[in-house]
Design goal:
alpha+beta; 7-stranded antiparallel beta sheet; 18 helices; 19 strands; about 35% helix; binds glycine; EC 3.4.19.13; zymogen; glutathione biosynthesis; EC 2.3.2.2
Length: about 575
């Protein structure tokens, strides 16, 4: 059975890799609204809600719950994330539902007696789980700005879980990997199996009965359906039985927070993004300001000068990110206003050498790439409300553990804290204070849900997964649209690079940067390393002349789709 699946899969992959790349470059139009997400069924759920008279917040809630069923590697109720919301009057707010460290957490909780991280415990096993925030965040956003009843927004996800949906080839590849993985991946062993104990094959209907029941509790009781009662009791029991520390008290105390966005002006546009505890918005704005100071508009896309300038902006923003940023509730003195100011950008680029690469000082700050399995979706409605939402389990399928009675997977987001106080190394560890573990603290994130407006109306709604690469992926896509006038599908697919201060190297998308440019960059002192793909963007732009939205899902998303109406 399994061998047949593999043969089919290989034949289809060959067909797709031969014919699909040109076919996938396409944007979708919508006059009344648009949802672009990592799964076509979730996008369709969101659009149906818009058609029923729901607003962008309603569509967001329904899409997020649907993704928790159809895109479980990152769509979730066991993780956390951020919403940036631009209302039709141009006002912008954000919701922070980032996971928190449990009450029993401490700065040295991952260390053995030798002072080193024990058994990769900040990424593996239940100590790596942060108190989930997704349900609280969606509920708070809906309570404040939603229009349709809550139960109508959870119901489509319940139906998808109960009645099932066809297994895609993309999901099937993960299903094979997850079903026979590490011993500790308890929930994954049967997660993708049918009643006969076989991994559900492509085209076969995949049902999730336990998840449907958990979603029923959330539908009936709102936030309390997750953070109190049966579900909370089972979470605590599961944690206790398997070495975790999250309790019912942690869950009951969890609150999402509405925060002001970070913002800057760039040409005739205004950029709004997520403030700390995400580092994404601050770094994005710092880099946009740096490139404005460097007159990026006069530099040709993908030239040596372009890659050099963009990489140097990234180097500086990531050094500042590592040094200064963390949970604002624990770091009241964080210099956010300074980091996003135009004056700071000018000063920060004073030592820029247009002919030579700067050097990242390894005695200071830097960080390795984080988990790259997050998911982003973008929503607009007929009234011009727009939402940019990114949420995550950290790694693909999070910690790959969870109670099979509840049917959802927990995050391993505690890995986004700095694990060893005071230890910062050139190979990537960071030990600075702002992002050390503390009870009830939110770990620093790189998620960068972003909305750009023009004349007070949404012009670009954009975001991506990808750990620390998220910030740079969103940054370059914003440049592609605002500076290089690319339409949304081209902006998403265009060549991306990633530099994050340390390691001191430029990661670039293989086959998309010419050998001549790479050679010229190496001669300037840059180190280059190829990678297959950076980012999985989901974006929407608005054409004010035609009065139409255009959406595109990154071709690297296996099941992603833009749906407009
Ligand atoms: N888990 C990825 C991030 O929050 O940056």
């Amino acid at each position: 059975m399994k061998i047949n699946h593999y043969i089919n899969y290989l034949a289809l992959s060959l067909f797709l890799s031969t014919f699909l790349p040109t076919y996938l470059f396409a944007q979708t139009y919508g006059q009344n609204g648009m949802v672009v997400s990592d799964h076509y069924l979730a996008s369709e759920v969101g659009v149906e809600i818009l058609k029923k008279g729901g607003n962008a917040i309603d569509a967001t809630v329904a899409t997020a719950f649907a993704l928790a069923v159809t895109h479980p590697e990152a769509g979730n109720i066991g993780g956390g994330g951020f919403i940036v919301y631009m209302k039709s009057d141009g006002d912008v707010t954000t919701f922070d539902f980032r996971e928190k460290a449990p009450l029993a957490a401490s700065p040295t909780m991952f260390l053995g007696e030798d002072g080193k991280i024990k058994d990769n415990s900040n990424h593996r096993g239940l100590l790596s789980v942060g108190v989930p925030g997704t349900v609280a965040g969606l509920y708070q956003a809906h309570q404040k700005y939603g229009k349709l009843p809550w139960k109508d927004l959870v119901e489509p996800a319940i139906q998808l879980a109960k009645k099932g949906f066809p297994m895609s080839w993309g999901l099937y590849k993960a299903a094979l990997r997850m079903s026979e993985g590490d011993e500790s991946w308890d929930i994954m062993k049967d997660y993708f199996r049918n009643a006969d104990g076989e991994v559900v094959s492509p085209g076969e209907i995949w049902k999730q009965a336990a998840l449907a029941k958990t979603l029923e509790e959330i539908k009936k009781h709102g936030r309390d359906g997750f953070y109190k009662g049966k579900v909370a009791a089972e979470i605590e029991a599961y944690m206790k039985a398997n070495g975790g520390i999250i309790t019912q008290e942690d869950l009951a105390k969890y609150e999402a927070v509405e925060r002001k966005p970070v913002t800057t002006k760039f040409k005739e546009f205004e950029i709004f993004s997520m403030p700390p505890p995400s580092s994404g918005g601050v770094a994005l704005i710092e880099m946009m300001n740096l490139l404005e100071a460097a007159d990026i508009s006069s530099v040709e896309f993908n030239s040596t000068a372009y890659v050099h300038l963009v990489a140097e902006a990234m180097r500086r923003a990531f050094a500042d990110r590592a040094e200064f940023l963390g949970d604002p509730d624990f770091n009241p003195e964080m210099p956010v206003d300074k980091l996003i100011s135009k004056d700071f950008a000018k000063a920060r680029f004073e030592n820029l050498d247009l002919k030579h690469a700067s050097k990242s000082d390894s005695s200071k700050y830097g960080q390795l790439y984080g988990g790259d399995h997050t998911t982003h979706f973008s929503v607009v409605d007929k009234d011009g409300n727009a939402i940019s939402m990114t949420y995550t389990l950290e790694n693909s399928y999070g910690v790959k553990m969870g109670s099979s009675k509840l049917g959802f997977i927990f995050n391993n987001e505690m890995g986004d804290f700095n694990p060893i106080p005071g230890v910062t190394t050139s190979t990537g560890l960071i030990g600075s204070d702002p992002n050390l573990v503390a009870p009830e603290k939110r770990m620093l994130s790189s998620m960068t849900p972003t909305i750009v407006s023009k004349d007070g109306k949404p012009y670009l709604v954009i975001g991506s997964p990808g750990g620390r690469t998220i910030i740079n992926t969103v940054f370059q896509t914003v440049l592609n649209v605002l500076v290089y006038d690319m339409r949304i599908d081209r902006a998403i697919e265009a060549m991306k690079i990633h530099h994050q201060w340390l390691p001191d190297q430029i990661l670039y998308e293989r086959n998309l940067l010419s050998p001549d440019t790479r050679k010229a960059l190496e001669e300037m002192g840059h180190t280059l390393r190829p990678t297959t793909n950076i980012g999985v963007l989901m974006g929407i732009t608005y054409d004010p002349n035609l009065k139409v939205y255009m959406g595109a899902a990154d071709s690297s998303s296996e099941d992603g789709a833009a749906r407009g109406y």
